Amino acid sequence: MSEQMNLTLKVWRQKNKNEKGRFVTYQAKEISEDMSFLEMLDVVNEENTKKGEDPIYFDHDCREGICGMCSLVINGRPHGPEYGTTTCQLHMRHFHDGQTIVIEPWRAAAFPVLKDLAVDRTAFERIQQAGGYININTGGVPDANEIPIPKRIADQAFESATCIGCGACVAACKNASAALFVSAKIAQFAHLPQGQTERYERAQAMVDQMDAEGFGSCTNTGACEAECPVGIKLDNIALMNKEYFTAKLFREEDIH
Amino acid sequence: MSKSKPLLSSTLGKKLIMSLTGIFLCLFLVVHLIGNLQLFKDDAGYAFNTYAHFMTNFTPIKIVSILLYLTFVLHAVYALVITRKNKAARPIGYNQSSGNANSKWNSRNMGVLGTIILIFLVTHMQNFWWKYHNDQVPYVQYEKNLDTQEVTSQALSSDEFTNYLVTYKTAENGDAIEVIKSQDLYQQVEYAFENIGLVLLYVIAMAALSFHLIHGFQSAFQTLGFKHRRYIGTIRFLGIWVFGVIIPIAFAAIPVYIYLVR
């Protein structure tokens, strides 16, 4: 039999994009330590629904830590107090009976709150659309391993490609900078031969879009790296800067 | 087809300016410290004062110093521009934040540290740079025996001084004597550091400089894209130990030494 706990939640409630939000206090009773954080919120929402109240709105999808949908700043930390985990994979055993938990949405001008704890992260999608892809001619399926890629390079690209686009980097950054996300998306292609054709156009286009969305600039505090649930490294940002400055100072290509 | 935005309009371009000006200012610190170490010499300021005259009158150095003032201004102005943009990127802050869990205090407060350094700089320039350039420091005359290298000094009144002057004469025993009339910045430094308040300000400012550079030096190279396991250790060592510890302590030692020993 696992331990049960009672918690006080201070949750950000906001009807929609335009209305002002505020904190509302809820009691979460008889919470099992084996529950995930989202399951705990499900229990609270069930109570709210029974009482005829509007349930707390939060983003979630796979609940396996791979889709990047869940968010939540829990006691001042994106995805909660554990390192290298998403909110859905955060278990209640990391909290204790009687604790007060403050739950807030990602805070950034580029991530407007849609309702309660859910924010609009389409800014990330527009950045991806600006250059986070490669153009190839469709046709017959190419043979596997036709293009030789050293294991070390493949690993680097894969590490960057691990980014799930959850936005915790933006939430953690004191400047709400999207540098870690954008740099991971640039780096995954910059490492690989398939990404070379549009390499410098991509860096410029994605950085331009990042700025247009109103994200802040990178101060290299490392908060993003520390809070990233999948361990994207600051090295990606150094690489993005190098790609961008190389494009601006030494290359001819403009962007499409 | 649309063109990409100009370099300096981007957040990355603005950080490039911060990075390059920051590294240039770090280089200046090295030169400034080497010169100032002459204040530790117990030679009535002969070495320091002749050096100060050289640094303020040699044309290439005058050109570099104008570049330096410009660099300071650029670094501060861009810091303001970037900070304003960063604040706008998060209009509503968090109710709870635990920054220490994911980053270092100094990396999040470079602006606060920079402001302390700026306040210090204004006082510093007023005390020495302004007074030196506006004839508000004492005067001194050195007589250096070129055969024995012995230096004697005597204070000059303002009537006896017109401008920096090097003349030569022969002593009674036939030794060649170099006579230098100079402004006595060395003496001015000693006067200034009789004030414990000023000494404290200098120590606090150097502590701020230390924390500023422990983050700033490494950060500048990260911004430039220099990150490779081959030299990351060297950059880290220079940033923390040379620019973060040795240089600020050496600078802070000057007012402390003068206050306690002289």
Account of the 3D structure:
- The complex is a heterodimer of chains A (256) and B (262).
- By secondary structure, chain A is α+β, with helices and mostly antiparallel strands.
- In chain A, 34% of the residues lie in helices and 14% in strands.
- Chain A has a 5-stranded mixed sheet with strand order 2-1-5-3-4. Chain A has a two-stranded antiparallel ribbon with strand order 6-7.
- In chain A, helix 5 crosses helix 8 and helix 6 crosses helix 8.
- By secondary structure, chain B is of the alpha+beta class.
- The relative contact order of chain B is 0.13.
- The model of chain B has no long low-confidence stretch (mean pLDDT 95).
- Chains A and B meet through helix 6, helix 7 and helix 8 of A and helix 1, helix 3 and helix 7 of B.
In short:
The complex is a heterodimer of chains A (256) and B (262). Chain A is an alpha+beta fold and 256 residues long. Chain A is built from 8 helices and 7 strands; from the N terminus they run E-E-H-E-E-E-E-E-H-H-H-H-H-H-H.
